[in-house]
Amino acid sequence: MENNEKPRWRLVKTDNPPFWVKPLIPVLALIGTFILTSVLILLADANPFDAYYYFLFAPLENKVSLLEILVKSTPLMITGVAVTYAFATGYYNIGAEGQLYAGAIAATGIGMSMHGVPAIVALPLMIVGGFVAGMAWALIPALLKVKLAVDEVVTTLLMNSVMAYIVSAILNGPWRDPNSGWPQSPDIAPSAVFFKLIPRSRLNFGFILAIVLIIILWIVMTRTSFGLKMRAVGLGKPAAKFAGIKVNRTILTAALISGGIAGIAGVAEVAGIHFHLIGEISPGYGYTGVIIATLGSLNAFGVGLAAMFFGLVDTGAQTLSRALGVPVYLGEVTQATMLLVALGVLLLQRYRIRRM
Amino acid sequence: MEVFLVNLITATFRVSTPILLAAIGETYSERAGILNLGIEGIMYFGAFIGFFVADKSGSLWTGLFVAIMSGVIAGLLMGLLTVTLGVNQHVSGLGITLLLTGLSLFGFRLVYGGRSTPPSIPSFQAVNPFGDIPILGTITQQYLLTYITFLVIVPLAWFILFKTRFGLNIRAVGENPEAVDAAGVNVYLVRYGVLAIGGGLMAAGGAFLSLAQLGAFTHGIIAGRGWVAIAIVIFGNWSPVKVMGGALIFGGTFALQLRLQAMGLQLPIPYETFLALPYVVTIIALVLAGRNASYPAALLKPYRRE
What we know:
Chain A is an all-alpha fold. Chain A contains 13 helices and two strands; from the N terminus they run E-H-H-H-H-H-H-H-H-H-H-H-H-H-E. By secondary structure, chain B is an all-alpha fold. Chain B contains twelve helices and two strands. In chain B, helix 1 runs parallel beside helix 6, helix 1 packs across helix 10 and helix 2 runs parallel beside helix 4. Chain B is globular, with a radius of gyration of 19 Å. The termini of chain B are far apart. At the A-B interface, helix 6, helix 11 and helix 13 of A face helix 3, helix 4, helix 10 and helix 12 of B.
């Protein structure tokens, strides 16, 4: 370096970020996201300040929309948990979307045949059935990965497309409800419907299921040897192997758990919200699960918080669309922007600005 | 039977075009070590921007040009995340796909409202260099963009990657960035460059669908074609000519499905079987190629200059 160079501000790598950096990260990510998305609000001829009131605060002001936030966060929590198991192990399961539909098909099939069966039998059957179906759909890419080293990212993505056609084939064929003009299945039996937590709201047992899955994730990750194995494999396969961990078996197990839980998200949507199978059960919950797992930094409570916040964003996008006519897709754009901004901001904790 | 085959071959080239464009774009970036999962979203955005600009300007070529530019910008955004910031490539690529899909849907709703029948525009017309000559005249009746893709984009990609200094740098950056850096090549610049070229090609692939094949923009316009393109790149072992072969296999299966549907045969299996077939064939092709696939050594690895 030349001696006559003037001192200037530079980024320097650091391992010990100052204590105030960490809480600042989500705040900076939020501010960055809302500055970027306000461009779209202006394009839609709305005042950004009014818009953000409807988007982020109005849904918190009444009980109906407050409950709706929890309803919307339910599938996001479950897919977020599903993706976390896989990503923590370094297995990039981007097939939660397809696995969710596999679970939804199983839940519908079991639910439709539960007439006269009490709920205490019907509900566990559906949940187990959805788990197994999601697992089965996740098995193919997982086996291809550990046995033949075929990249799981591509196979899980392609299998999402295949699943979309399977659902369509089922709805246009064997399960087509003759009483409906739309491709949809007949309703599941009343005893197979998830009970409501609060009367006259959409909030149902699925939300409790999601919370339980988050707690289980926390226990598995922090309190079991399997959680330790998964994280070791995720940090580096050679080192994990050296430590005596069966790497392929760990990946396979994590992939199957991930697929199974994504399947439960499908069960919760069928049994808690729709009561039949339609092609639009999920507007991309499987993909949003990847964002949620990442924003929650693969931590159980982080996933819960991120899912709740995204539930607010989804609810707020609808409120905003009704109030000011801003297209409802602002919700999706905001979620994706937040991911990208957060990825950038997260790096801040690894650097310091120094004058040198 | 002859008519069936001729139509099938004609359709194969047409259907392969958007996937081949995107797959060549992905080949550039993966050769330099970046897996761009933004491909699906960039295609989607290209389809939307191309349609929107063509509709408002009245010029299909302007639409195509602006779509390509939007893809270049998206590629640079991917560069900002993965090259400059060194963020996980899977997550940033998927984030870009979700962002651009959302932006397209937002923009489409804003401009065209929620009408039930999507607006359409007069699309590109096929060119017909061999006139009325039987068979050959039919097969060669293709869009100009299809000709450009097969006769210019693919050979050019091969030439650039394997016969130029820039291509040597690209491949070296994808195998051993440290060594290339030591030799005085700017690794960041090369990676930004391929992401920009790749993004432009992906967006062109999407715009082909809205401006030539459909003359409209629909919600399901890309339907996983970007993911197929990524699979084809692996199947084609990161070589433009083999990638072209992979695109033709997918295109052929897809075209077969279209022809069978058009014939309106009463089959004992649901027609979705044929719709899903190209994706299943792609997975099988990937498995067959899996053992021999030689991934660029530095793929997915961010490069930090210490």
